[in-house]
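name: query_chain
kind: protein
chains: 1
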Amino acid sequence: MDEEKRYDIVEMEARMYAPLEWDSPAICKIQDLKEAHYDEALRLIKHHFFREEPMCKTIALLQDETSVKTYLDLIRIWMKDTTSLVALSLTSGRVIGVAVTRINSNSEKSDIYNRVLNFEGDALEKIMGLINALIKRSNVYEEFDCDIYLRIHVLCVHPSYQQKGVATALLKVCIQVASKLDISAVGVVFTSGLSQSLALKLGFRLIAEIRYSRWVVEDRVVFDDTGKGNYSVAFMGIQTPRE
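structure:
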């Protein structure tokens, strides 16, 4: 094989395995999350999502090492579903945002399986207890008359890049990904007032909601200080445009 033909084959293989790039804001590029970025994306989630997300913050997740390890291991499993997205800074190439997504199937009972998992770590068990109660209440497959939907499990943007359109762009691309995969709906658990407002602006609608003040376990409000404006955890969804 001559050198020119060998170069063409290498170039073709590079294009085949390169991450797909999506519509992105001016400060970053959004592409499919590949294994090479798993560790950096997980560090972003650990240092910022676990610290800033209302439920994680209130329950002091970072102080529970078992919960942190279990949650990160679970997120890595979700990442391997190959539908997740990453936002990379155009100046540094660093991971500045991530949307961890997974396809949930009614026929495979994905949601039910997630609800019966035993989570190691007291903090994580409390978080998942509320989220799974919300998912059960949502009846998303009936709401959207579908067998599968794209679930966004984690949406995280580095604090330096928040309020700059990165979260909005990641959500929009998640909808595009679902549309490309012929998935008729996207569902997300939003835990802050700010994220819920953003979702409404993008066309998501409220499907189910549980107020933090009413989530009581053993006569105690579990999430009793979620911060100003963060009053509920909400499952919100949107139907995707058909390709």
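note: The two ends are 41 Å apart (CA to CA).
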